[in-house]
Design brief:
The complex is a heterodimer of chains A (620) and B (445). Chain A is α+β, with helices and mostly antiparallel strands. Chain A is built from eleven helices and 29 strands. Chain A is globular and about 105 Å long. The longest helix of chain B has 26 residues. The chains are: A alpha+beta (620), B alpha+beta (445). At the A-B interface, β1, α7 and α9 of A face β1, α1 and α4 of B. Chain A: Pfam families: BING4CT, WD40.
């Protein structure tokens, strides 16, 4: 915190100096102008000396006209730096205002104007593109859009300034010079960290009902464990207090929390069950049989399940209705992941493909061939931009989900059985009993993991805890909670997910969340599509209207030359003027098409040769 | 080795005592708020639905008149006072906060044709079928005193309307001609005529106070300047205009209520085309009044409904009707922009909210913030089909609904016929005439 503050101050100081130089330059110009003025009216001033009022500020320094005063003034200005004096009208106004204010209080603001904002901070809060005001035909709309732009800009800046007030800083781990962070043992980290954090590294030895699947709630406060041989336990893992512990006396394949810590779903040997936090069975869903993996989509209140018979089913848990049942025709569905940015379900198949599903379409939205063998694990990062997959070919691929292109690929010794992305983009992978955590995988291929830990048994479930630097691993002999500094978001938004929420707050949140439950029909690859202009419908409507009316009401009226003075509006000159306008339109059209052609050609030339395939020769 | 692990002190996040407010730390990072657009859309949908749920515009009915309410006037100073004149010559003054009549006086024999208040609010004028103009004090007589006019003018012809100047002691009446009177005199300062016709209403411009507009029964709207002895110009429409109202914010804009079910907004500088044609009524429009913001106006119609139109839109945003309300003869938009008053045939004055779903009374700041946020959301997603459908839906009485359907069919048939005619005639011989120009017969200067 302190270090960052210092850097900030340094930045400030630099910009401050810059402004000072600019202010000086401007002052020099203004000074010379003022000097000229005073020379003209100098005599009159001497004759009638005005009475000085306190609200008019202190008297101007008596300057005998000439060069020395200029030098003196310049010297004075140097000692008094000003920001925001770029010579624009606004800057000058600010300058004037601050000067007056300074004179009343007797002190000058050393940093006048708004504090500078670094571009990268502003960029984080910018959404979409700016509207092209020049292309808007109507003046009214243009003004409206300009006003909107202004407001959006202000909101972005305020949000960026708000960053400064956030209380927490994310964690980090740095090795000594020559020391790899992956060699640092968990015990050492726990010892070096504070006491409260040290308690977050623990191990639960449960070797009776093993291997364990596990899940954290969205605020990251509660933990759910499900052993294959029927042991299900829910606990507040931070205080280590148990909510409930039951044995369902049946094979448990997967467990997941529903929207709050009051309910969880357990996929058992035959059917899907829902329990409350006391372990009381709330529901048995017999339509969901043979479920292997589950994902809960929190904003849609949907529970997506993948079964061993190849069915992907969606259950709306707020009304208890089955929303969609999709036969994926992809065999046994043991690999599943969700994209947290657009609620698309990713399924891994034994033929090496990964398919993307939404509940609205019975066919996969995307089918990607990712591995030569079967797919073992899929995970998508919180921004929804990168997908990590691992397969039987022992490879770990990172895909860019915007272009569906591989960006990184690495070979792991045994291949990763489970993958998980943290909120800040760390990737955890389990290779047998070794858990490895990688940093910045989409950016550069890591030659060494960030952290590594060996478990007592083979891992069976893996999740990062939200808003904590904790990685939970369920394995054959219980559960291990590992410390991974830098994994979790440091600052939560209490209206979204509050780890410290009270019962009342949770109830209120639940009502709000149910009210703004997104209907499942809105699950698409691009969730922002809803905010865009529906140009197709607009064009179609316009077309229908033109057909109905028999004319185009929006058509540009034909050019009607204005009547000019006598002699200049002869039939010949009128025709000439008409032609000139028509030609100009034609010219702009030709110019545009030419530009487009050139741009396309340049793009083709600029494209690297390496990416071209043999099939390119059939392209036109 | 340097290490920092996230560790939050619960004291920073949990309130100290039960009396404290809960702490709500915010982080506006977009990464923590996925599905921004779909969630906002759902919120907007909910807000739109709630708006329709809370749309209960009818507030009160003021009864007491013994005949149909023919005219109304707002008090220029007091928001709670409104005056009304009935068809039996009775004038009542109402207190809107108490929703009761505070004074009744028998002003005329026969109809009270027009009523208007003086700009200072101390007196008001009425004209009636007994060919008189009377000035009354706003305060009633003392206990036991007799209701007597301050001033009575006996005219030669019938007066059908009256309006007072907004700043000076001058008023105008209409009948066979437009007369401009000084309050102190018994004969008009000047009489303005243009052809022989009966004029149904006259209105002073609230900004350019020397200007007047009147509508006559020979289908024209005539504009006058008080400083000249002759009228300025007139526009002749297809059918008769019943009344007009000047925009209180834009001096040159006025809206006229026409017999052909439409309202026409004109720019008085360019009368050859109306600025906007407002259609939705299914019968003659009898009265129109602007909101004090000049952005909307309310119209009363013979089809037993009241509609609110935005000035720049061709269709109404709101329609008010009840089972018992008969032909609405007069309508007023109150000066605080919150309420609408309409007087109808069946002797009642009804009080409506101008914004049907508005919550009356003082709003808690949180409530206000939520309201503003919802308003903005509705605005943002207003063009989405689902939201548009819900926001536009209004229940209409069967007669109005059927009539509107019939009118739509007729219009469609006319359009189709014109299209066919155009198809089979020489290109260019049948020019397209826009709706804004179609109903204007001529402009005379």
């Amino acid at each position: 915190m302190i270090g960052c503050g210092g850097r900030e101050r340094k930045n400030l100081a630099r910009s401050w100096r810059l402004h000072a130089v600019q202010a000086l330059r401007m002052e020099a110009v203004a000074g010379s102008r003022a000097h000229g003025g005073s020379a003209g009216g100098g005599k009159k001033k001497k004759m009638t000396k005005k009475l000085q009022r306190y609200w008019e500020g202190p008297p101007p320094p008596d300057t005998p006209a000439g060069a020395p005063s200029k030098a003196k003034r310049r010297h004075n200005e140097k000692t008094r730096p000003r920001a925001g004096a770029e010579g624009s009208l606004q800057a000058r106004k600010v300058l004037h205002g601050s000067e007056a204010a300074g004179q009343i209080s007797g002190k000058r603001d050393p940093f006048p104007g708004a504090a500078p904002l670094p571009q990268h901070k502003v960029k984080k809060f910018q959404r979409g593109q700016k509207s092209q005001l020049a292309e808007v035909s109507s003046q009214r709309l243009r003004d409206h859009l300009a006003l909107l732009e202004q407001k959006v800009e202000l909101a972005v800046q305020q949000a960026a300034r708000m960053e400064l007030l956030l209380p927490e800083e994310p964690g980090f781990l740095e090795g000594d010079p020559g020391e790899d962070t992956c060699t640092i043992a968990q015990a050492d980290i726990a010892e070096a960290a504070d006491i409260a954090s040290a308690t977050k590294h623990f191990e639960l030895t449960l070797n009776q009902f093993g291997p364990y699947r596990m899940d954290y709630t969205r605020p990251g406060r509660h933990l759910l464990l499900g052993g294959r041989r029927g042991h299900v336990a829910a606990l507040d893992w931070q205080t280590k207090s148990l909510l409930c512990e039951i044995n369902v006396m049946e094979t448990v394949t997967d467990v997941t929390w529903l929207h709050t810590e009051n309910m969880f779903a357990v996929a058992q040997r035959r059917w899907l069950y829902v329990y409350d936090n006391q372990g009381v069975e709330l529901n048995c869903l017999k339509r969901f049989n043979g479920v292997l993996r589950m994902e809960f989509l929190p904003y849609h209140f949907l529970l997506a399940t993948a079964s061993e018979t190849g069915f992907l089913q969606y259950l709306d848990i707020s009304v208890g209705k089955e929303v969609a049942t999709i036969c994926t025709r992809g065999g046994r569905l043991g690999v599943m992941g969700q994209n947290p940015a657009n609620a698309i379900i990713h399924l891994g198949h034994s033929n090496g493909t990964v398919t993307l599903w939404s509940p609205n379409i019975k066919e996969p939205l995307v089918r990607m061939l990712c591995h030569r063998g079967g797919v073992r694990a899929v995970a998508v990062d919180s921004s929804g931009m990168y997908m990590a997959t691992s397969g039987l070919d022992r490879k770990l691929h990172i895909y860019d989900l915007r272009a569906y292109q591989p960006v990184q690929s690495l070979v792991l010794p045994v291949g990763a059985g489970h993958l998980s992305f943290s909120q800040r983009g760390l990737l955890a992978a389990t290779c047998g009993e070794v858990v490895q955590v990688y940093r910045d995988v989409p950016m550069q291929p890591p030659h060494k993991p960030y952290l590594s830990h060996t478990l007592p048994w083979t891992a069976h479930g893996l999740r990062f805890c939200p808003f904590e630097d904790v990685l939970g691993v369920g394995h054959g002999s219980g559960f291990t909670s590992l410390l991974v500094p830098g994994a979790g978001q440091a600052n939560f938004d209490a209206l979204e997910n509050n780890p410290f929420r009270s019962r009342k707050q949770r109830q209120e949140w639940e009502v709000k969340a149910l009210l703004e439950k997104i209907p499942s029909e809105l699950i698409t690859l691009d969730p922002g599509q809803l905010g865009q202009v529906d140009a197709i419908t607009m064009e179609q409507k316009h077309h229908e209207r033109v057909e109905r009316l028999g004319f185009d009401p929006q058509a540009k009226p034909a050019f009607q030359p204005r009547r000019k003075l006598k002699g200049r509006s002869s039939a010949g000159s009128l025709l000439q003027r008409k032609r000139k306008v028509a030609n100009e339109e034609q010219r702009t059209k030709i110019r545009k098409s030419l530009e487009q052609q050139q741009a396309a050609e340049q793009e083709r030339k600029a494209a690297p040769r390496a990416q071209s395939s043999a099939l390119d020769r059939f392209r036109k | 080795m340097r290490v920092k692990v996230l560790s939050r002190n619960p004291d920073d996040y949990i309130r100290e005592t039960k009396q404290d407010l809960q702490r709500v730390p915010r982080n506006y990072d977009p990464a923590l708020h996925p599905f921004e657009v779909p969630r906002e859309y759902v919120r907007a949908l909910n807000a739109t639905k709630l708006e329709r749920v809370f749309a209960k515009p009818f507030l009160a009915s003021l009864d007491g008149h013994r005949d149909g309410v023919n005219c109304m006037a707002k008090h220029p100073q007091s928001l709670s006072t409104v005056l009304s004149g009935a068809c039996d010559g009775e004038v009542k003054i109402w207190n809107l906060t108490k929703r009761e009549c505070i004074r009744t006086l028998q002003a005329h024999e026969g109809f009270v044709r027009g009523i208007c208040t003086r700009f200072c609010g101390t007196s008001f004028f009425t004209v009636g079928d007994d060919k008189t103009v009377k000035q009354w004090k706003m305060e009633g007589p003392g206990y036991g005193g007799k209701e007597e006019p301050l001033h009575t003018i006996l005219g030669k012809t019938l007066y059908t309307g009256i309006d007072h100047h907004w700043k000076e002691a001058v008023f105008a009446t209409c009948g066979h001609q437009v007369d401009i009177w000084d309050e102190q005199r018994n004969s008009p300062i000047c009489s303005l005529t243009w052809g022989v016709d009966s004029i149904s209403s006259v209105k002073f411009n609230p900004i350019e106070t020397h200007l007047l507009g009147s509508c006559a029964s020979d289908r024209n709207i005539v504009l006058y300047d008080m400083r000249q002895s002759t009228p300025l110009k007139k526009v002749i429409l297809d059918m008769r205009t019943n009344t007009l109202c000047w925009n209180p914010m834009e001096a040159f804009i006025f809206t006229s209520a026409n017999e052909d079910h439409n309202l026409y907004t004109f720019d008085m500088r360019f009368l050859d085309s109306s600025v906007m044609v407002h259609m939705d009524h299914v019968s003659a429009v009898l009265d129109v009044d602007y909101s004090p913001t000049g952005k909307e106006f309310v119209s009363a119609s013979f089809d037993k409904s009241v509609r609110i139109f935005p000035v720049d839109k061709g269709h109404s945003r709101e329609v008010y009707h009840t089972k018992r309300m008969q032909h609405v003869i007069t309508v007023k938009w109150t000066s605080d922009n919150k309420y609408i008053l309409c007087g109808s045939d069946e002797m009642n004055i009804r009080l409506w909210k101008a914004n049907a779903s508005e919550k009356l009374g003082v709003l808690v700041p949180r409530e206000r913030a939520a309201m503003n946020y919802n308003q903005k959301l509705k605005e943002k997603f207003q063009h989405h089909p689902q939201i548009k459908r819900i926001a536009r839906h209004r229940h209409l009485p069967k007669p109005i609904y059927n009539q509107a359907k019939e009118l739509r069919i007729m219009r469609e048939a006319r359009r189709r016929k014109e299209l066919n005619r155009r198809k089979h005639s020489k290109p260019g011989s049948l020019p397209f005439v826009s709706e804004k120009k179609k109903h204007i017969v001529a402009v005379v200067k």
